[in-house]
């Protein structure tokens, strides 16, 4: 008879127990970038809805921003670094292949021998990482998982590129996922479409770049480092035609309807895409819609946790509210889930919704 292999003790429900963010010190208004892209404040606002964006200073690194956001998330959840069993970090702008940013962040937070890994799923990265974390908690592989979405996209921006230079920005958001007496994170609805990979891309891979460097060294020529490139029209068409289905799938698998929602937190890609989704989903006026993009820009994997924090901080949403999250972008990839909005520092979880356990 084959040897029986034991399995971990499962937990029925998972929830986001606390949320924290880091916003760069420097806020860059449209007026500072319009000359470089030969544009105007009105054109940028009409095309994207963005009035300003956060650009990181040299000391505001991927790791530094992640650590700051994580500390606030742990404080909001009422736990310490010693309570965290796993770190899952989502980013597309780490400029080295290894080690993972998650491992460095764990060490900076004082964690020891803690599993940590990075996820690369573009602007859907946080929702992918959140799905990973919820599964780890439910399967008994971890009790508390630190989920981070972080970007320094300004490292990959060509200042004169009219398609990207005014959109992308920097920042970090972190969440603690742990066990709960009631469900706080619905099943994920996710997928990808590699046929659309050219819509948002790095314009050259590093092999091409290294070949250019070698040639320049031998000929005395110059090189141009890799940059983000985007076909905005292709992304918009994909988003407004496909994401309705993705949103409805996330609602269906969670057993929730549009009428049950208190908040809608789409990836902060473009105000026109957000408006289109609100319209096609026929969201009631009572649903608070995240529009953090206006002052924050598109922070890719950090976008959704930062937008959640803005809704909570301003009082547009409250901890315990039912929210639909949907991330989408490079890949093209998407992921969405229905969640209970978490507490942030200074806003405690209402007693009526206090199903999460941080013990």
From TrEMBL:
Residues 251-341 form the Beta-ketoacyl-[acyl-carrier-protein] synthase III C-terminal domain. GO terms for molecular function: 3-oxoacyl-[acyl-carrier-protein] synthase activity. The keyword RNA-binding does not apply. Residues 117-194 form the Beta-ketoacyl-[acyl-carrier-protein] synthase III N-terminal domain. It holds the Pfam family ACP_syn_III_C. Pathway: Lipid metabolism. The keyword Cell inner membrane does not apply. Gene3D superfamilies: 3.40.47.10. InterPro entries: ACP_syn_III_C, ACP_syn_III_N, FabH, Thiolase-like. Coiled coil: none annotated. Keywords: Acyltransferase, Cytoplasm, Fatty acid biosynthesis, Fatty acid metabolism, Lipid biosynthesis, Lipid metabolism, Transferase. GO terms for biological process: fatty acid biosynthetic process; secondary metabolite biosynthetic process. Belongs to the thiolase-like superfamily. FabH family. PANTHER family: 3-OXOACYL-[ACYL-CARRIER-PROTEIN] SYNTHASE 3, BETA-KETOACYL-[ACYL-CARRIER-PROTEIN] SYNTHASE III. This is 3-oxoacyl-[acyl-carrier-protein] synthase 3 protein 1. It comes from Hoyosella rhizosphaerae. The gene is fabH1.
